[in-house]
Amino acid sequence: MEREELIIHIQSVTIKDRIKDFLNLPRPIHEELDDNEQCVWSSNILLCATVFLEDAVNYQSIVHKVTRKYLLIYRWFSSSFIKKLHQIILMINLCLALFEQPSSFSITSDVRDQPERIIFSYNILMIIEGLTLFWFLFYISTKSTCLGIKYVQKRFWIIIFFIVIIYSLCEWFTLFIFIRQTYHGFRVRRILRPIFMIESSQLMKKVFKALHKNLLTIIACISLAFIHILFFAIMGMFLFPKSDRPDSQNTTYFSNLHDSVFQLLVLYSTANNPDIMMPAYSDRRLNALFFIVFVIIGIYWIQNITTAVVYRAFRGYFLNSIINSQLRRRIAVRASFEILRKRMSYNGSMETKDTVPISIIQTVLTSVSMNKWHFNQINHCLNELMYENEVINLDQYTHIMQLLDLNPKLAPDLDIETLNENLFDRLKAVGRSKAFDFIGTIFAILSVLLVTIEVSHHHLNTDYEDLVIYIIPIAFINLSLIIYFFLEIIVKAWAFGPINFFRSSTMHILEATVAFTCFVLQMIYIMIHGTPVMAMNRYVDVKQEENSFLTLWATTKTCNMLFIYRLIRFLPASKNIRIIVGTVIDEIRNGGAFFGVLFSCYYAYSILGMELFGGAVDELYKRYNQSNQTICGTYEQLEYWPNGFNDFYSSMVTLYHIMIVNQWYVFVNGFRSATDSIWSELYFIFWYLFVTNIGLNICLALSGDIHDAKKKRADQHEELIVSNMYDIYRSDIKEPTSTEIIQRLHQHPYINFREISSERRIIST
């Protein structure tokens, strides 16, 4: 009876606990005793075991201080609430670039329109930035305190974080207190902001570590490409001598070494092909061989070698990362059990046993911050084990804690009721049937087709009466389809149950959102105009508002077009298509580390571009107005005036255009002319090399890993969901040996797992 009462007590949840669960705050831990064995586990022992289990849940290292004060600080520091708060503050810090002068809030970035920008208070922005910087200082100081100085000294990113935050605070303090708004020079702290984001992500740091590990090989490949370009540039100057003709090859492209190298670099990206070849080819047929050989060697050999090198460097690299994460989890689980093996008897002596009471494990488990699904599964196994024995050994404990490896999305706990033969259950069966889905998809295609025809006639017909003749039947059919989609979602939610229906697929949430939004917008439109057909006065207003962002009519039609995504339902019909589409979706879902690295470089490079080329487009436009002469194919002739580095938003868009490669040399020539400096080319060339030769190939490596994982599961007739990095490499991960785990435990700087005396020290602290 006492054991049953203890279990009931453990599972009870107070209102205070519910609030802490809602805010993801750690729960307090109290001392527990085992009456049968006359032993007691101090609150610090239980706290240490709880923290180690939370380390296991989060794949974190247990190398941190274990005194009660530091365990409490570390536990709060590692809680979900603090992590989310840190992410919010980090996002605020990064978003400041949009509001800082010059702000990105204007209708257009075209310098010809001289857009009026919204100017935000300098003092408020500086105060917000200062608060974020002080939070980062508190964050890294707390982290370093819990881990210890010896550990921090060996961690590169923590040291870099310290240096950057100290410098940023110094620059911020100097500008805010002494210089204030009069300074418009170089602000280095803004370029360094992405480092705060990188340090907060283990996977992003591993990406940079992989880059550093293979940096010499990557540099060798890029150097090989540069030597290839340089060799052919010099050969081009020899093969195409100077000519008096103004359109000769030498005059146009190979007049000097700089132009020769730059033009062949552009050809290396295929951006100016076949323009660079045409003058020489028009002079002589055999001149084409020069460019053909250059392209074959450079693009189809050297560039593919670079791709292979980067691909090989990263392909499978995350497998080692996940293996190390798995090892950290196993070490943390083992450490939590080893800690609980030590208990104090009532006579004050320390005892060590090979088993731990299950009630103590459940006490610790209720305080651990973990997924509810994992908690229920582990607690269920412990309850079943208690029927056989009241204690648990290491093997049983390790086996049960392996439930943490399971992905709840791969084993959804959907309780779908069984249908009977009555009328309502038969209607539910219709709502669950594939035929009902198929009919809805056909209607979705029809709806999209009708909307397309309606919008097309709206733009083609200038006479209102002609327009009404075409769209009256279409408008009423489309209204009927919208009502059908609205009722379809209600029927499906009723047939499956609302919770089961929306939990089973995110597509159901998207379909419901689109259906309800379309229905509400259509009803609002009918209430205003009295008919789904556009009234005469409204037709005139819409024609006058064609340059506006979105009218109610346009919003309704745009939302209606989203039904085209119902075609995704046909994809699971083919296993190969499902694998390919799933690879794309899962890369977006799991590529946070890669995309984070790309975004960090993107962010820093955009800020650097603002510092280097802010106002360059204005200068170029001023010269253009004065001379009113342009050369065909230049920045001015192509009217690239909205592209520049006058603010953060336009800088991001400009770098995006260069990343696409097409016409990127036009930007180089334009900004080189605006700055009157040949060195400005290096900014754009380095961006092109990083994005095309490194960044995109890293994403290619991740795609290969995900596709292989899905293909292997498909061959084994397993579920194709890959919702986290562990799922990608699950079949390739091997369990670490007990010897390896013990060796790592013995290396703990604050706990000596070999000696019982160290455990006495833990309890005393």
From TrEMBL:
Membrane topology: Multi-pass membrane protein
Boundaries of every Ion transport domain copy: 90-314, 434-713
UniProt-recorded Gene Ontology molecular function terms: intracellularly phosphatidylinositol-3,5-bisphosphate-gated monatomic cation channel activity; ligand-gated sodium channel activity; voltage-gated channel activity
Any one GO biological process: endocytosis involved in viral entry into host cell
Broad class of where this protein is predominantly found: membrane
Gene3D superfamilies attached to this UniProt entry: 1.10.287.70, Voltage-gated potassium channels. Chain C
Transmembrane segments: 120-141, 156-179, 215-240, 288-311, 435-455, 467-487, 508-528, 548-568, 648-665, 685-703
PANTHER family xrefs: TWO PORE CALCIUM CHANNEL PROTEIN 2, TWO PORE CHANNEL PROTEIN 2
Protein name per the record: Ion transport domain-containing protein
Protein's organism: Adineta steineri
